[in-house]
Design brief:
The protein contains 12 helices and no strands. It is mostly helical and 273 residues long. The protein has one domain. The longest helix is centred in the last third of the chain and has 32 residues. The radius of gyration is 20 Å and the shape is globular. It starts with 16 loop residues before the first helix and ends in a 14-residue tail after the last helix.
Length: 273
């Protein structure tokens, strides 16, 4: 008779802790800005090349999302111990834990697909038709109020899946969890820490969507039309890329904070390759 899986302990925090995750991630990024940006650029190059393949390409990247996440976790783990993020870290998940990471990718595909399909209950399938259209979707369709509500509904429906995915790759490689235990533990920890998670999510939205939107609006208002695209490319695009890098690092910071509280830099052993 097999023994029950061990219980993974985690800490519960108050709301302001969510801001600390982004703050600590920004500090790590500032200490190794070029290596992190090179790592992200290489990942997005892979994503661009794979996504060229119709349908199969985007699905493959979703399937491999937890696998590449381990690469970013390994890079952050290495940096905390005095090293530097390197391109080779990106492929750390293709080692011993690949078999446990791929089912997490499958659940990500299933969860997001069901969330998109559920939007038909709100807008009668307009958003779904727009997303699956072969040509350019009709802007008058995707900009109406019902579709905007449907998009919010999709996010709400996908939220349990996203929370279950959040810490799952880290739990697989650092805690030797199976895929199901990793996902359920990730979901429980995220729900138990709903206050800092909510603060964290609002900061992500503000820094990743509101601030760039304000910047673009101000540039469009103050800069001549012929120069606006260049100013956006010089100002907004670098900011967004730096923000994405900080958000990527914050996944590791949040995991370390919740599952390895008081250990300083966690976990003690490197993620297996």
């Amino acid at each position: 008779m097999s023994s029950p899986p061990r219980v993974i302990d985690f800490v519960r925090y108050s709301g302001p802790r969510g801001a600390a995750w982004l703050k600590d991630a920004a500090a790590m990024l500032a200490a190794a800005r070029v290596p992190w940006l090179m790592l992200l650029l290489f990942y997005y190059l892979i994503q661009l090349l794979v996504s060229v393949i119709p349908l199969a390409g985007p699905l493959a990247m979703m399937l491999l999302r937890p696998v590449f996440t381990v690469g970013f976790l390994a890079a952050a783990w290495t940096q905390e111990r005095g090293g530097q993020p390197e391109i080779r870290h990106l492929f750390r998940g293709f080692g011993a834990n690949l078999g446990a990471l791929l089912p997490i990718g499958v659940m990500l595909i299933v969860g997001t697909t069901l969330a998109v399909l559920a939007t038909a209950l709100v807008d009668g399938g307009v958003l779904l038709d727009a997303l699956t259209a072969n040509g350019k979707p009709d802007e008058t369709l995707i900009s109406n109020a019902r579709v905007e509500v449907a998009m919010l509904f999709a996010i709400v429906c996908a939220l349990p899946t996203l929370l279950a995915m959040w810490f799952a790759p880290a739990l697989v490689v650092f805690q030797s969890c199976g895929p199901w235990q990793a996902m359920t533990t990730s979901l429980r920890a995220a729900l138990a820490n709903w206050r800092p998670v909510a603060v964290y999510g609002m900061l992500l939205f503000f820094c990743g969507a509101v601030l760039p939107g304000i910047a673009i609006a101000l540039i469009a208002l103050l800069v001549p039309p012929f120069a606006a695209p260049y100013v956006i490319a010089l100002v907004v695009v670098p900011y967004v890329f730096l923000f994405v890098a900080a958000q990527t690092i914050s996944d590791y910071v949040a995991y370390r904070d919740i599952f390895h509280a008081g250990e300083g830099a966690a976990p003690a052993e490197a993620p297996p390759g």
